[in-house]
């Protein structure tokens, strides 16, 4: 079994992050334009807090980069078993999405998150596979 190429893993994660942001702008922007549905609006209404500033945006991007690098690590870990094609990227993104969905469902059940959080999970069901497929095009084993 080949070792995971750490440099390529980080690069693939960063590329996946940019792909995620691009698809998020298209998907969520379209939904907001067509149906006036906004994930950010639901969270702002539920938590009544307005975050902004440079540190907020730097941390938000840093967390997104970390998430995408972790997803690409899942992809790299299952790649020897599933092969290096789009199916593996989709499986990795669905594994990650399922963990996030169960975490969100638990918090909705506890009353911590609003039920509208599932709309964001629906958006992620589109955004994550595309991001991992784009990232998988960059990743190569070392």
What can you tell me about this protein's structure?
This protein has 142 residues and is mainly alpha-helical. It has 5 helices and no strands.
Layout of helices and strands, plus pairs?
Layout: H1 6-35, H2 39-47, H3 54-82, H4 86-110, H5 117-138
Helix pairs in contact: 1-3, 1-5, 3-4, 3-5, 4-5
Give a brief rundown of this model.
With 142 residues, the chain is an all-alpha fold. The protein has five helices and no strands. Helix content is 81%, strand content 0%.
Quick one: biggest sheet? none
Summed up, the helix count is 5
β-strand percent reads under 5%
* Topology pattern, helix = H, strand = E: HHHHH
Q: How far is the first residue's CA from the last residue's CA? A: 11 Å
Mean pLDDT: 91
Number of strands: 0
Low-confidence stretches: none
What oligomeric state do these chains adopt? single chain
What general outline do the C-alpha atoms trace? globular
Helix content: over 70%
């Amino acid at each position: 079994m080949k070792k995971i190429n750490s440099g390529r893993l980080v690069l693939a994660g960063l590329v996946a992050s940019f792909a995620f942001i691009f698809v998020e702008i298209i998907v969520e922007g379209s939904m907001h334009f067509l149906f006036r549905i906004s994930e950010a609006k639901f969270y702002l209404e539920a938590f009544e807090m307005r975050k902004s500033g440079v540190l907020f945006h730097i941390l938000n991007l840093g967390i997104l980069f970390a998430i995408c690098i972790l997803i690409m690590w899942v992809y790299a870990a299952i790649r020897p078993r599933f092969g290096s094609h789009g199916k593996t990227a989709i499986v990795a993104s669905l594994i990650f999405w399922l963990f996030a969905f169960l975490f969100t469902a638990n918090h909705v059940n506890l009353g911590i998150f609003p039920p509208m959080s599932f709309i964001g999970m629906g958006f992620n069901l589109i955004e994550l596979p595309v991001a991992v497929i784009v990232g998988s095009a960059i990743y190569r084993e070392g």
